[in-house]
User: Fold these one by one.
Assistant:
Number 1:
Amino acid sequence: MKSDLDLIIEFYEEEKRALEQGIKEALAERDYEEVYYRGEALNSVEGQLHRMNSLKDPLYEKKMQISRLTESAEGMGIDDRLKEYFMEAIMQTIANKERSLEELLERKAELIDTQELDDALFWLYEQKCRAFGFCFPHRDGSLCLLFELTAQKVLLISVDVKDITSDYDPEDLEEKQIHLFENLGFRYDHQKGSLVYKYDMNNFKGAWDIKIMLSRIVYDIGYFGQDKQGTIEFYD
């Protein structure tokens, strides 16, 4: 039986194929206005499809990067000598990315797919604790997410902005990191200096959606360390 997410992905894939066919037909008829509008719709559908696939597989974007590099290497229409040089460089890049992907896949299960996280969320839902922190290794320290529940059963997952950047990496800009978290649904609270993710826990039955979001922090944004194990600390 297909999941709801799989059905949504299938819907967008069918919509994408229909729009692509419509663009071909409009081009054949030289109806460029129709090409424009269908192209705009196609961009929107592709964006939704990318988001849905990323929810299903946190490593989707990294796999797509490898696919795009491979297609670029195969389609290079340049001088044979230059092509050989660039092909070697591209294939090395692909090999490096594949190794990185394999390492991420090896780490994937142990950090997020733990019963402890499920238990902690149910404890919070049942008000057996006031809050809990979920921390996992990152760079020379750790990244900690605070989980709290409001009286309206809204789960608040927050992270301090100062913890998501590195003083040692000049390219690790605060604005860039904030944007990456905002892409996952976090909102920047300027007064508190933290990023907050809200999740409605009314009629809560499972932690799957939350685990998907957490896995994207770990594997999409790249917050992980050599030590795979995350830790949970409860606050009364």
Note: The CA atoms of residues 25 and 31 lie 9 Å apart.
Number 2:
Amino acid sequence: MTMLGMYVPDRFSLKSSKVQDGIGLYTARRVKKGEKFGPFAGEKKLPSELDESSDTRLMWEVRGSKGDVLYILDASNPRHANWLRFVHQAPSQDQKNLAAIQDGENIFYLAVDDIETDTELLIGYLDSDMEEEEEEEEEDVKDEDENSKEAKHLVEMELVIKKEDHPCLLCESSFPSEEILAAHLQSLHQRPSTEEKEFKCRNCGKKFPVKQALQRQWVY
């Protein structure tokens, strides 16, 4: 039969949509799970031909074997569309009763549940597609977490380096400030001027107050 100037199969009817303004597609008889309708009709367009004002609710991407977009079917113009343009997107996954599938370069609508008579047809994603998207999102989150951990580790390393950037030249210790380094030198390495130096260099005869200083003398 013809409704609103467009052919509609007898098992469907057009009435006011319950999910958005305008006309929706309803069942005129019971539809069994697994039934397939279509193909979806629309004007073929390249992604570059679309702009921000385009109504993507009436479009489907047709993809090649490698997942690349071959073209887009745009049903916004009734002259290039068919009755499937009146199937609206389900407000939630729980409310969907159809899912879009691609067969070759054609888009069909598949009944994912038994659909009773006089029920509005609402399109959603296949559960398998949703699982793939969720897995991709989880991978993205995991990558972000790993990057965040790595960045945090680098920051911590940088802080450690900055925290101890005042090394003692007489031993292997390092300190966060010159004041603490000075206190370290005074308490550990400095000896009274009257005290005889204890460690003598066998090469040059110089004496040092601590063994570490003598060892550094050998290095230099």
Note: The chain is about 25% helix and 25% strand.
Number 3:
Amino acid sequence: MRKIRNVIDSLVKCVEEARGFILAAVLIVAVLGAVVGYKYYRYTQDDPQYCASCHLMKEAFTEWQKGKHRDIVCQICHHLSILEQNQLLVTYVVKGGSKNFSQTHGREKPWQECRKCHVSEVSQGSVTLKKSYGHARHVFMQSIECKICHKGSLHNFQPNESACQNCHKDKGVHGIGMEAFSCLKCHSFSEKTPSMVPKDRCIKCHNTLPQKSPMSNLLCHQCHKPHGQISPTSASCASECHRNETSVGQHGFHMKKGLNCLDCHKP
């Protein structure tokens, strides 16, 4: 017993003599651990190479490098909290390399992050309808999610030209030569008017029409209805704008004779 007590006393004495060294060593280890931990945390949160280190992400990483979001690190859109990261890690360990386990950071999370960057675009219409009427109507008035109208393929978020027909089933195009046009060929989300058709959009194709005429201040679709009657009729002239023309001059007389507006007036 005496020998054991002597050994213990010696150890206590050594510890007391080396207390400063031990505290310094513990402090150094703690600081190094904190620095390494912080750097690793930043690596997982800010470095796209962390995502690329997984063999399942090779294709996605390549598409990201070619896309318009290549200057935005993966973790900005595919953000996971610490709790979600650990839940995903545990699930992956339990289920191995199976692709069947549920996760949201791949395809669901990014759609929730769109507005954080694109707020300058989508919120233009939240204050006034004079800017970006398309986003004002769809995003703010009707609360339609970005993914409903934009493609969700691998790092491709272009507007889905076929998505319009999912809601606007009654808006087929009846114009001659326009049957194959997508809605976005004519309608622009950034246009200020409810029709979402810029005045010069029609002229880009119909460039043989005179630019200056008595009706050049009108929008094309005020007379031509691509979703209905593409060619204007006398009835539409009288109902849309010229409601009192029958009582002006000889218009009433000519109309009683069976003449139509377009028989005399050539826009």
Note: The mean pLDDT is 77.
